[in-house]
Amino acid sequence: MKIGIILLCRYDSARLHGKILKKIKRKNIIKYILERLVVVGDNYPIWVATSNEKSDDPIVRFCKANSISFHRGSKSNVALRFLNCALEMKIDYAIRINGDNIFTDPDVIIEMIKLAKTGKYSFLSNVFNRTYPEGVSVEIVKVSLLKNKITLFDSYDKEHVMSYFYNNLNNSDIYKFYNQSFPIKKNIKLAIDDKNDFAFATKILSKMNKPHEYYNTGELIELIEEYNIS
Fold first, then answer.
1. Which residues 6+ apart lie within 8 Å of 125 measured at CB?
2. How far is CA 224 from each of CA 22, 50, 132, 218, rounded to the nearest angstrom?
3. Is the per-residue pLDDT at 186 higher than 80?
4. What are phi and psi of 197, to 5 degrees?
5. pLDDT digits over 7-43, tens only?
6. How far is CA 75 from CA 10, 107, 146, 227, in A?
7. What is the pLDDT of residue 12?
8. Given pLDDT bands bounded at 50, 70 and 90, which one contains residue 68?
């Protein structure tokens, strides 16, 4: 069984233009995400999937300059872009990470990979009931399932990639991964969507006393509370 990680990202974000390449402490957001994904280990392939629009050329230049594998595909049909990237990678299970998830949690990914490797589930997600803060979302899908079902996707599903599976799979095919490690804080958002989120992430990173990639979500929440970051 081959498992790979796909980072979906675009450059022309409406609320924070070019956010994926914006820098915090002289490092691009995409670099933070990739460094955290490397911690997952076991040499899982990590690819960036962006669009074939000229506006996303800066992301491709970054990937080439940093020897990062990438795939270019449809701007609007994100699900198809994700699928074609997975097929090019020749993987059996694809892990979806979003480009606004600067604090994606390697510990969560590792635990979910263990469950995927059992082969019992076609779709695994930690998004159900939001027991993790927004920005720590992880979804793993069996590539053959996505390939077989993608023709049934409506316009919303094409944009949101995994929405079809939340609504149309039997419970036996799904693993709902819940947080049981720390109390959930409903008001904490760890995704970067706009300039306020960017400022929040900057404050968090400025208070770290060890490499950022070794902070899991629980430790990030402790850091936020210790320094009253808002």
1. 137, 138, 139, 140, 162, 166, 174, 175, 176, 177
2. 22, 31, 15, 10
3. no
4. -65, -40
5. 999 998 878 889 999 999 999 999 999 999 999 999 9
6. 8, 30, 18, 40
7. 87
8. very high
Q: Which two tokens stand for residue 191?
A: 């995704």
What is residue 187's predicted lDDT score, i.e. its pLDDT? 84
pTM: 0.96
The length of the chain, given as a count of residues: 230
Torsion sign (Cα): 43, 125, 131, 76: positive
Give CA separation, 191 vs 6, 59, 136, 185, in Å. Answer: 17, 19, 7, 14
Quickly tell me which residue has 């803060």 as its tokens.
133
